[in-house]
Amino acid sequence: MASKSEAERREPGNEQAIANLYASMRTELNQIHSKITELEMEVSEHSLVMNAIQPLDPSRRCYRMIGGVLVERTIKEVLPAVQRNKEGIEEVITRLNEALEKKKKEISEFEAKYKIRMKKSDNDLKDDSNKKEGNAQGVLVGPAGSSESQVLSS
Fold first, then answer.
1. Helix or strand or coil: residue 116?
2. 27 with 35: CB under 8 angstroms?
3. Phi, psi torsion values for 7, nearest 5 degrees
4. CB neighbours of 54 closer than 8 A, spacing ≥ 6?
5. Does the pTM of the predicted model rise above 0.85?
6. Do residues 100 and 30 touch, judged by C-beta distance below 8 A?
7. Confidence band for 148, pLDDT divided at 50, 70 and 90
8. I need a surface site. Which of 2, 8, 126, 128 has the fewest CB within 10 A?
């Protein structure tokens, strides 16, 4: 009986609670996606640094930012550290991708359970009708020799 009450607590009570829970799930999905994108940019930056310093003399001085402090090191000390950091970030990206897929599955199950369908906004509906009818609205530009005031007044 205790498990039944736990299940009831986890189940949203009304439509507003369902909508709020769904919105929070979508927000969490977007946050995971944003973090993956951010970390992929960091991996790219690490690769750029590695490619830039690999051909250089290993005893050459270089500077590395560690915890907000600029530290002088040699390339042979910095290169392995940058490589380890890059591998660690790639591992985190892998875990986040797994979490992203799990969250997508959870959301799709939630959508199926509560029969949630995303409504198109009014702007999307107008855009779709314009595409179907071929009514493209745009800016009319005069001949190349016309002045800006003539283009604006037409």
1. coil
2. no
3. -65, -40
4. 79
5. no
6. no
7. very low
8. 2
